[in-house]
Design brief:
The protein is an alpha+beta fold. The model has no long low-confidence stretch (mean pLDDT about 95). The longest helix has 13 residues, at about 250-265. The protein has a single domain (about 30-135, about 170-365), classed as Roll (2,3-Dihydroxybiphenyl 1,2-Dioxygenase, domain 1). A hairpin with a 5-residue loop joins β10 and β11 (about 210-220). The strands form 3 sheets. It has a 9-stranded mixed β-sheet, with helices on one face. It has an 8-stranded mixed β-sheet with strand order 2-3-4-1-5-8-7-6, with helices on one face. A two-stranded antiparallel ribbon has the order 12-18. It has 7 helices and 19 strands. Helix content is about 20%, strand content about 30%.
């Protein structure tokens, strides 16, 4: 393992975010996300335009699926106040659920309130979010996307008398890829997901004082490569999902999906661009209740041997190329409950107070780039 190193702007040593030596389980993937709020019709309109398929559900509940993974990727339940309920992770075997239940003192495995009632264990993270870990008998493998279209690149010109024409339709959404959780309880939250679920920090971005601000974490699949990140913990003043991301086959699917969303009146949050950490081509959109959802393609894959990278937090480090970062992209979603939480956290010892706000502002002015 490599040493964390020092922050290039301040010389402060990066604080290490170590792996768990003996996690309770090693989850295989992020399975689905649960939301609640008052906008059932808007949720249906957005997620179908985004490229997900509707799934029949209970009254006052909308459910949506991708092509691979769990039978349902998004559940949106009717409620008077919008909020993120929590994530569900998948394991490969029921035996792992029994192991997790024993290690955490939780009931289980027991049927979960999800389509098909898969067996699982229900936990609470340090923010009070519901975290399900479940085994899905009907888990679907990632499909083949067929042979890539030939590209004319310089002297290599395989495509002749064959113009490209893409149908104007929503993106082909392959699967739920990752989510980012904002929290003022950064250290406790990161350790919860690392120690309980076996997630591995792939890359960590730090504040100028060396403390971690963002940890991109992948599933530990041993020698089998996994996404650079399936779950991200970000140091923010409000506990909420920062965004959720879904994989599509390629750049054309990202672009056409955005054209359809824009035509139907939805608002782009940021994009199109390519990230540095993770390398994905990205395009972010505002969905129901102000939450952000991302189409992405062509992300990095790491096996378990890849060591953790440490980098300075900066706006410049968010993308190799992209339009200017809009201010609205970085602002937390603020309803009445979130405003109260923001004010409470800023003026108490919450893990994100005035000092952290100043450090974050300084970090976002930095021009430092990841290695």
């Amino acid at each position: 393992m490599t040493a964390p190193g020092v922050h290039p702007d301040s010389g402060a040593s990066y604080q290490e975010v170590p792996r768990a030596s003996a996690p309770h389980v090693k989850v295989h993937d992020l399975a689905l996300l649960e939301f609640q709020g008052p906008q059932l019709q808007r949720a249906r309109a957005f997620f179908t335009a985004f490229g997900l398929q509707t799934v029949a559900g209970a009254r006052d509940t909308e459910m949506f699926s991708a092509e691979a993974g769990a039978p349902v990727a998004i559940i949106y339940r009717k409620a008077p106040v919008a909020s993120f309920i929590g994530p569900t992770f998948a394991v490969r075997t029921c035996a792992e659920l029994e192991q997790l239940a024993r290690a955490t003192g939780s009931p289980g495995p027991v049927p979960q309130d999800l389509p098909g009632n898969p067996p699982g264990v229900l936990l609470r993270d340090p923010n009070g979010l519901q975290v399900r870990v479940a085994w899905f008998a009907d888990w679907r493998a990632l499909p083949s996307c067929g042979e890539a279209q030939p590209l004319n690149r310089g002297a290599d010109r395989p495509r002749s008398n064959a113009p490209l024409r893409h149908p104007r339709r929503p993106s082909r959404v392959l699967r739920l890829g990752h989510m980012v959780l904002g929290t003022p309880r950064w250290e406790a939250t990161a350790r919860f997901y690392i120690d309980n679920l076996g997630l591995i920090p792939s890359d960590v971005q730090a504040l100028p004082d060396g403390r971690p601000a963002v940890a991109f974490m992948r599933c530990d699949r041993g020698a089998e490569p996994a996404d650079h990140h399936s779950f991200v913990v970000a140091r923010l003043p409000v506990t909420d999902i920062e965004h959720a991301a879904f994989e599509v086959p390629d750049l054309d699917e990202v672009g056409m999906g955005g054209a359809v969303l824009q035509h139907q009146g939805f608002r782009r949050a940021w994009g199109i661009g390519r990230h540095i950490l993770g390398s994905q081509i990205f395009d972010y959109w505002f969905g129901p209740d102000g939450h952000k959802f991302e189409h992405f393609a062509d992300g990095d894959l790491f096996d378990a041997d890849r060591p953790t990278g440490y980098h300075a937090m900066s706006a410049a480090g968010l993308a190799e190329w992209a339009p200017p970062l809009p201010g609205a992209f970085l602002r937390p979603r603020l309803g009445r409950r979130e405003v109260a939480q923001l004010l409470r956290n800023l003026f108490t010892r919450s893990g994100f107070g005035i000092a952290e706000l100043r450090l974050m502002a300084k970090a976002m002015r930095s021009t430092s780039l990841p290695d």
